Amino acid sequence: MITLNNAVLQRGPKLLLDEANLIIHSAQKVGIIGRNGSGKTSLFTCLMGKLQLDQGSLGMPENLRISYMHQETGGSTRSAVEFVIDGDRHYRTLEQQLVQADAADDQNEVARLHGELDILDGYTVKYRAEQLLSGLGFKPQDFNNSVSSFSGGWRVRLNLAAALMCPSDLLLLDEPTNHLDLEATLWLEQWLIQYPGTLLMISHDREFLDKIVKYVVSFENRKLQLYKGNYSAYEKQRGERLALERALFEKQRRRRAEIESFVARFKAKASKAKQAQSRLKELQRMEEIVLAHIDSPFRLRLPEPDYLPDYLLGLSRVSIGFTTPLVTDINFNIQASSRIGLLGFNGSGKSTLLKVLAGEMKPLSGEVTAAKRLRVGYFAQHQVDVLDSDSTPLKLLQGVSADRTEQELRDYLGGFDFKGDRAEFTIGSFSGGEKARLGLAMIAWQKPNLLLLDEPTNHLDLEMRHALTVALQAYSGAMIIISHDRHLLSNTVDNFYSIHNGSLTAFDGDLNDYERWLQANGNSDMPSVDSDAAARRLDRKMQRQRSAARREQLAPLKKQIATVEKQVEILNKGLLKINDLLANPDLYEDQNKAKLNDLLREQGSKKVELETLEEKWFSLHEEIELAEG
User: Fold this and answer.
1) Between the N and C ends of the chain, which has fewer C-beta atoms within 10 Å?
2) Which domains can be identified in the chain, with CATH numbers?
3) Does residue 67 sit in helix, strand or coil?
4) CA of 434: how far to CAs of 176, 396, 473, 595, in Å?
5) What is this structure's pTM?
6) Using one digit for the tens of pLDDT, what is the confidence trace for 80-130?
7) Cβ atoms within 10 A of the Cβ of 205, count?
């Protein structure tokens, strides 16, 4: 059992904990959440004995074996596999003692140490280290490369592998998925589910938390609040509590109206009726948990594109890569309605494809055709590294917005939580999360009609991820997203494409299908959900001919759908305006009774009309689905 009693913790001038209390029982799996800077990592530092409480007490069992994931690793000539084995400190101690016993020709000690190694399962240590490396995305040819040869993100993966390698009773993980791709995240998820000890994990990945933890500890007003259940359960419990606070009633009402509007609007954004049903479940869940985020400092709005042509960008017989092609014969069109999630193992070419689409890299062969008024907003994985550290958020925005007032720029930055003086702080003093927020703000300000987002949630906390998800739902342009954040993907994209075996193909399934395939097939390359699909695939020429004929056949239906979508959007705007009017307390005075009745009748009429249009929308999509077979 781990206990904190009346804990007070201060770092510099900032008070992190003030008479906080907490009890963690053995073998519990606990998610640690809170805004950036609230004290999560400092709590871990206390648990490791490297930081003392200012007041109060911390109780932990004696001889508790603790394993902690370090965030940084310097250069080293040590090989990756040996670095991971170093994580098992007990094994390394026995190994060194065995060398000394051999040198002293102490056969009794040699025999004793071999017995201890056997109990420790020390003779499989290299195999276990290689399994961890493979699961986290390293290739066999990388195992013997020096630590210095890997980039910062891959060194973090090495730190994670070393932490998992260490036998432990208490495992402390600080943002373990931050530099992982989706495939490695899914592998880690399964590993942690089977971990027998006590797990305390700081994470901003809600789907990851949902699958693993059974308790949530939330940093709230310098206290530690324990919630039973996973992250979704925490959101509901916290939302119910906040709903009782009358001071937040008006903010709650407006926020619920916004989410309801998004749900209604995006009923008409999925490309197929069956996918729309899946999306609706996700969006309805967001309605349920909106109150849990009512006090979030983030209110993001992605400005609407000035121009949104039906056709934005096309690739014809394109090959991408460096000296050797990673992906060949890409035939891929991006329409105004495209909302695509890109899947594939690390190194398959996902990020390279986004660079080609953004115009930052030339294809090796083939043709890229862009609309005349294409405007791309590209967020790269390392976006935070290209910001001018000597500038400020306000100066950066003023540099591309000479025609806008300072107040307009401040209002916009405030939505990304750069409020007041914070808009004038130098970027060099910002955390990784703040830089990521600023990078997203700069891209969105340009009003792109095509968003290309490569791991946009890295460094973002849960509140910012939630706000970004809602903002992307409302965004009317096209977008392609690479992300290991399954909640973001499930709530923002309509279709998935996968890159495997050097080919880009439409993925006929959702993230659950993808996860099932990975569990069934391990880390081998995935051709598709249907393993027999390759054998039945038509040759490319015939496939293109059939696709053209199908597009011609479906064009009238799609035109009707576009008309319905526009009508739905107009109705939703009208309903939102009525909701705002109905929220005015003066309307319920006796002298305004006639106006109130008129508004209620208009509201009812619009809702009936909206239901009729939604039924028509689903019917049209079912026709398309039947036609596509």
Assistant:
1) C
2) 2-236 (3.40.50.300), 245-295+547-628 (no CATH), 311-536 (3.40.50.300)
3) strand
4) 19, 14, 22, 47
5) 0.68
6) 999 999 999 989 888 899 888 888 888 888 888 888 888 888 888 999 999
7) 28
